[in-house]
Amino acid sequence: MTISKKLRTWGAAYLLILPSFIFLVAFTFYPIAYSVVTSLDAASGGIGFGNYSKMLSSTEFQQAIRNNIVYAFFSTVPAVLIGLLLAIVLNTKMKGKGFYRFAVFYPTILPIATASMIWVFLLSQSIGLVNHLLGIMGLPSKIDWVNTSPYAMVSIIIVYIWKYSGYYMLLFLSGLQSIDSSLYDEAYLEGASGWERLRMITLPLLSPTTFFVVLIAIVNSFQAVDQIYVMTKGGPHNSTNVLLYYIYEYGFVYWEPEIASSASTLLFAFLLILTFFYWYGGQRKVNYER
Amino acid sequence: MKDSLAVRRSKLQIFATHAVLILISAAILFPLIWMVFVSMKPKMEIFSSPYSLIPSSPGLDNFSTAWGYAPFGKYYLNTIVIVFGLLAIQLVTVTMAAFAFARLKFPGKDILFMLFLTQLMITAQSTIYPNYMTISRLRLLDTRIGVMLPYMTSAMGIFLLRQAFMVIPSSLEDAARIDGCSTLQMIWHVFIAQVKPSLVAFSIMSVTSHWNEFLWPLLVTESTYSRPLTVGLTVFAQQAEGGAEWGLLMAATLIVSLPLLIAFIFFQKMFVESFVSSGVKG
Amino acid sequence: MRKSIFVLALAICMLLMPAAVLAQGGREAASDQLVIRFYYPIGTAGDLANAMNELCAQYSAENPDVDVEPIYAGDYVQTMQRTLTSSKAGNPADIALLTSADVWTAVDEGIILPLQPFIDSEGEGFLDRFFPGMLYDSMVAGEYYAIPFQKSTPIFYYNKDMFREAGLDPEKAPQTWEELAEYAAILTTDDRYGVEIPIDQWLLSIFILQNGGEINNIEGTETYLDTPEAIGAVEYLLDLVNKGYMPAKRLFGDSSSDFVAGKTAMMYNSTGSLAFVRDSASFDWGVGFLPAGKERIVATGGGQFVICSGISEERQAAAWDFIKWMTEPAQTAKWSMASGFIAVNPAAFDLPEMAEYTAALPQAIVARDQLQYAVGEPPKTHDAREVSQAMASMFENMLAGNISPEEGMQELQASCDSILAEYN
Q: What are the φ and ψ backbone dihedral angles of A223, each rounded to 5 degrees?
C-alpha cells in the first residue's frame, strides 16, 4: 500500500469516527472531568478533599451506600436465580413456550417509571391487591408497603425482580443453546441423573454467561433511580435512598453540585472497575468459545 | 436446539415443569392483567369493590378522561420525534464508527475503541448533573433536541455493528471492487446489506430504551413542547393532597405502554433476539 | 475516496438537519409577545391542568402582548425543585406557585423578589381583597414575598352512615379532642379505623397550636418543640394510635382513599380533597371544623405566587399584572370550583356561579367559615423545608412507637436548633 493511500485510509477512518467521538467526549468524558474537577474544588485554584470528607462522614451518604448494597444483593440474587431456573426449564421443546416467554419477558420492555406506578397501586395499603392476597393466606395484611421501613426497600426489590428476571432468563437461554447437546447424550448413556447432568455440564458450561448476567444485574442495581423516584422518593427516613438517587437529590433538589459531583465521581470509579471486569471476562469468553 | 435423548422427560416431569412455569408467569403477568381491568373500572367501584377482577360495567371512560386531562397527544408526538429522530441519527453515527473500527487500519484504534467501551457502563443516568449544565449553557433546556443530544451515538450500537462488520469475508469486498463499485456504493450494497439483522437488533434496543427513558427528560423538559410520555405520565400521577385516581392512572399507564407491548406481541422473536445480542455479545 | 466521503458527509448533514429542526421546533410564540413562564403544582386530583390552561389563555387573550405559559411542574416539592434548578442554572422562570415553607427557602436562596414595592404601587388597600387569614403565608420574617392563590385548610370529614350505624348524631361532628377520642373508640371496628390523621408537620403543628403551644418565633430563627404543650399534643395522638383507633402512618392521598373505601369513619384532610370525596364516596358524608383542643385553631396550607429574581423589569411588571388578575373574584372562583381550594378573594363568594357551587357542595362553606380561626402554615423558619422534614419524620417515628414523645420532641428540637444555627 502506498503511503498516500494509507494516509487516505486513516483520514477516512478518523472522519467516520469523528461524529460519534464528538458526542462521546461531550457527554461522557467531559461530564466525568467536570465531576472530578468540581468535587475537588479544583476550579477555585487548589485541590481539596473537603467535599469528600463532608460527604463520607454524613449519615445520609453512608445510609445510601448501605441501602445500595442491600438493594444490589437482594435484587440481583433472586432475579438471577429465577432467570436461571426459568431458562433451564424453558430450554426444551414444550407446549406454550411462546406464551411463557411473553409472560415473563414483557416487563423488560415496559418503562420502569410506568411499571412502578402499577406496583404502587398493587402495594397500596388499603385497596392493594398484594395485601388482599396476603390476607386471604392468613398473613399480615395491613402492611403500608411503600411508606414504611423496611417494606419500602422490599417494594423496590420486588419491582426489580419482576422487571429483570425475564431478561436474565433470556440471556441464560442463549447461553444454554450454545452448549453442545451431544454432551448430554453421552452423560445420559453413562447413567448420569438429571440433577448430575445439571451440576456437571449445564452449570459449569454456563458460567461465562452467569458471569455476564451477574455483572449486568449489579450494574442495573446501581443505576436504579426511576422506580425510587416514582415509588418512595428515597424514603421513609432515607431507607430507600441509593447512590444515584442521592446524586439526583444533591444535584437537583438541594443544589449542592460539589456533593453531587463527589458522589458521581465515586460512581464512575466503581463503574469503570466493572467495565474492566466486563472487558476482561469478555476476552476470556471469546477464547473459551473457540 | 436439537432434541437430544437426555432432555426427554417423563409425563410427571412435564407436569411439574408446567406447574412451576404457570405459577411464575402468572405472578409476573398479573400486574399487567390487573392494570387492564382496573383501567376499565368506574371510579366508585375501585373503592367499593377493589378486588373484583371484572368490572360490573366495564367502560373506556377512564381512557377518554385521562386523554382529556393531560395532553397525551402532544406527549406522544414528542416521544415519537425524540425516539425516531435519535434512531435516525444513531444509525448514521454508529454505522460509520463501527465500519471504521471493523474494516479500517489506523493508529490509535485500540485506544479509541477502549474509550468507547467506557460508555457502555457510564450511562447517561450517572452523568445527569454535568449534562444538565451543558444543555442549559447551550440554551437547549425544554427542547426535544436537548433531550436527544447526549444519546446521539451509542457504544452498544458500535459494538454490535462492529461485530457484524468483522465477520463479512473480505472476498465480498474484493468482488464488489472488481465490479467497479465506489466506496459508498460498496458500503451500501455489500456491508449494510450484510448487517441488516444487527441494525434491526440495535434499532429495537434503541427505540425501547429511549421510549422508556425517564430521569433525563424529567430534568431537561418542562412543558408540553418537549415533555415525553413517561414524564407526562408521572407528572399526571402526582397527587399531593387529593385522593388517588387509580382508574385514570392505570388507563394512562396503559396509554403509555401500549405501543411497545403491541409491537412486542407481534415481533416477539425480533425483540428477544435484539435483547439477547445487546446483553451478552455487546 | 475523498469525493465519496464528502458525499457521505453531505448525506449525513441532510439527514441530521430535518431531525434537528423537527426536534427544536414546537414553540411558535409570536416574536413580539412576551412569554411569561409560570411554574405551578397541582395539589389535588382532577382536571386542574386544563382549568389552569384556560385561565392563562384567557389572560393572554385579554392582554395580547403577553403570553403566559403555564408549566405544570408536578407536586409542590418538584415545583420548588424546578424553580430552584432553573434559577441556579441561569434560566429563571418568571412566576412560581410555592408553599409557604418554600417561599422561605427561596428567599434564603435569593431567587425571588420582595413584593412590597409592587403592593405599594397599587396604592392603599390592595391586600384587602384577601381573607386576612391567608396572608400570613405570604410573609417571610414580616415582609411580603408572595401573594396567596390556592389555599386550603385541613377540615374534618366523617362518614354519616357509619355515625348512624353507631348511634351517633350524623349532623354533629366531634367538637373537642375528648369527643374525638370517644367517637373514635365507638367507630373503630375490626376492619376500619375510627379516625385517620395524615402524618406531617402541618397537622402536627396544628395539634401543638391547639394545645396552647407555639412552633417558632417571628424571625424564623428558633423553634419551641420541646415544650409540655408540644409533647402533650403528641401524647394525645399516640394514645389514639396505641388504642388502635387510628393508624400510625397515613399520607393525605391514602387517607382520602381509605375514607371513600370505608376503611376509616373519620379523617383529617385538606379542603382540597372535597371534590375527590364528592366524586368517589358512595355513602352520606359530612365535614366539620377540626375538633378544638385548649384553643380552636387551624393552619392554612397551599400555594402562593412568587416572582423570580433575575428577570427584566418588563417581565416583572407583566408577572405582577398576571398575579393581580388571577386574584380577582372571577378567577379565584373559577380556580376554587375546579380544585376545591378555598377562593382567596372573599368577593368570589358573592358571584352567582359560586353560589350555585356552594349550594351543591355545602361542605365548601364549612371550609370558608373555619378561616376565622386560621393562622399561617407552620413552621415559619429559615430552611423551612428541612425543619418540616425533621418534624414529619420525627412525628412518624414517635407514632410508630420507636421513641417516646418526650425524648422525640427533645431530639427534634435539638435537630431544629442545629438546622437553624447558621441564622442565629
A: -100, 10
Q: Are C188 and C378 in contact (CB under 8 A)?
A: no
Residue C169's pLDDT band, with cuts at 50, 70 and 90, is: very high
Comparing A198-202, C20-24, C66-70, which segment has the lowest mean pLDDT? Answer: C20-24
| Amino acid C300: pLDDT | 92
Which CATH superfamily does the domain covering C34-152+302-368 fall into? Periplasmic binding protein-like II (3.40.190.10)
Of C1, C272, C276, the CB nearest to B183: C1
Domain limits, chain A: 1-48, 61-289
Q: What is the pLDDT of residues C315-356, one digit of tens each?
A: 999 999 999 999 999 999 999 988 888 999 999 999 999 999
Number of Cβ within a 10 Å radius of residue B12: 8
| Residues of chain C neighbouring A147 (CB-CB closer than 8 A) | 249, 251, 254
Tell me if domain C34-152+302-368 and domain C154-300+377-423 are identical in fold.
yes
Q: What is the mean pLDDT of residues B254-263?
A: 90
Query: Rounded to a whole number, what is the distance in angstroms from the first to the last CA of chain A?
Result: 32
Instruction: Give the E-state strand segments of C52-188 in sequence order.
Output: 66-72, 95-99, 139-140, 143-144, 147-152, 154-159
Percentage of chain C with pLDDT > 70?
A: 92
Which ranges in chain B are annotated with CATH 1.10.3720.10?
71-281
Residue contact B242–C276, C-beta within 8 A: yes
Residues B63-72: tens digit of each pLDDT: 888 888 888 8
- Please compute, for residue B261, the number of CA atoms within 13 A of its CA located in the half-sphere on the CB side: 18
Cell of C300: 392554612
Domains of chain C, residue spans: 34-152+302-368, 154-300+377-423
CATH class of the C154-300+377-423 domain in this structure: alpha beta
Binary contact (C23, B143; C-beta < 8 A)? yes
Angle between helices B246-266 and B268-276 (to 10 degrees): 90
Instruction: For the domain made up of A61-289, give the CATH fold.
Output: MetI-like fold (1.10.3720)
- Confirm if A222 and A243 have CB atoms less than 8 A apart: yes
The CATH fold of domain B71-281: MetI-like fold (1.10.3720)
Interface test with C, best of A38, A126, A232 (most C CBs within 10 A): A126
Pure H helices in B39-108:
43-48, 61-69, 72-103
C192's CB contacts (< 8 A; 6+ apart) are C162, C262, C263, C264, C265
Distance CA B109, CA B97 (A): 11
Is ipTM strictly over 0.85? yes
Cis peptide bond upstream of A150, omega within 30: yes
What are the C-alpha distances in Å from C421 to residues A88, C218, C304, C409, C414?
61, 16, 27, 18, 10
